[in-house]
Design brief:
The protein has 330 residues and is α/β, with parallel strands linked by helices. 40% of the residues lie in helices and 16% in strands. The radius of gyration is 19 Å and the shape is globular. Bound molecules: 4'-deoxy-4'-aminopyridoxal-5'-phosphate.
């Protein structure tokens, strides 16, 4: 299909990229879906589209309606684009410690941004819970609820999974990715396992997230912290529940940053921290499986969103990560 129907029509069907240097190094096919080429710049465009289309189909969202979401980033960007295209009011509740670039971008896209003080999930004034209450109070409003609305994982079951299967001709030995809401891993894992139960599903986790230990031991236990954004969690969301997961890999910040800068310098790919976690984990899985296997993962979003942090040498130095990035420490 040469002509796509506007923003919504151009979500998904991203290219599957072969990362040549990582393939040479491991003897495996290391492949990554270029999700940063989605029209809103991230994998979350897929979830935003499915959540809104699902609400429209159910008659919960109609012309003149309002979409409310608690989000620190990419989902809000995807929702704001689609709301503009569909004529919905978009309200984004966001913790006020997020980068000013994100708030500015959301406002530019037409969203009403409501910064709130950061609070843990169990607090009633956590940003996600504030978003839920706000949607309840506003007539004609829906709460997108990306963490527990399974239209999110359905997006990946219906699109990302089948795309990977078709693009590899069904030759996938492992699928590896980090989770925020868990929608991507849950949807892709279900689809690939249905096609071939031998496909190995591996959860990639940053430090500070509880899911590595959850997969390994059944206990939700978090250790350390991470500079990555949009991934890592301390609870099992409705989207993640019931996902067939075979193993987990933990990636620390130095390994993540080193991979982000390798992708930039060796592959010419300018992507964010979760892509670094994904590819570092993919290489680890390739080493475990040995040469001749095909490992698929995702390049989740664009590096430009992180200009003030991950791609700022002073910030990296402050975090003790300049060396990992290959930047001379002065
Ligand atoms: N990478 C980035 C940059 C993200 O914003 C997100 C979503 N928060 C993810 C990865 C994880 O995707 P999912 O929510 O489907 O688990």
């Amino acid at each position: 299909m040469a002509i796509r129907d506007g923003f919504i029509g151009s979500v998904g069907n991203t290219p599957l990229l072969r990362l040549g240097r990582l393939c040479d190094e491991t003897g495996c096919e290391i492949l990554a879906k270029a999700e940063f080429l989605n029209p809103g710049g991230s994998v979350k465009d897929r979830a935003a589209r499915f959540i809104l289309e699902d609400a429209e189909r159910q008659g919960r969202l109609a012309p003149g309606g309002t979409v409310v979401e608690g989000t620190a980033g990419n989902t809000g960007i995807g929702l704001a684009h689609i709301c503009a295209a569909r004529g919905y009011r978009c309200i984004i509740v966001i913790p006020d410690n997020q980068s000013p670039e994100k708030l500015d971008l959301l406002r530019t896209l037409g969203a009403e941004v409501r910064p709130v003080p950061p609070k843990p999930y169990k607090d009633p004034d956590n940003y996600q819970k504030i978003a839920g209450r706000l949607a309840d109070e506003l007539p004609g409003a829906i709460w997108a609820n990306q963490f527990d609305n399974i239209a999110n994982r359905q997006a990946h079951y219906a699109t990302t999974g089948p795309e990977i299967w078709a693009e590899t001709g069904g030759r996938v030995d492992a699928f590896v990715c980090a989770t925020g809401t868990g929608g991507t891993l849950a949807g892709v894992a279900r689809y690939l396992k249905e096609r071939d139960s031998k496909v190995r599903i591996v959860l990639a986790d940053p430090m500070g997230s509880a899911l590595y230990n959850w997969v390994k031991t059944g206990e939700l236990l978090a250790e350390g912290s991470s500079i990555t954004e949009g991934i890592g969690t301390t609870r099992v969301t409705a989207n993640l529940e019931g996902t067939p997961i075979d193993d987990a890999v933990q990636v620390d910040d130095p390994a993540c940053v080193a991979m982000v800068y390798r992708l930039l310098r060796e592959e010419g790919l300018f992507v964010g921290g979760s892509s670094g976690i994904n590819l570092a984990a993919a290489v680890q899985v390739a080493r475990e499986l040995g040469p001749g296997h095909t490992i698929v993962t995702l390049l989740c979003d664009r590096g430009g969103l992180y200009a003030g942090r991950l791609f700022n040498s002073q910030w990296l130095q402050e975090k003790g990560l300049a060396e990992a990035a290959g930047i001379a420490v002065g």
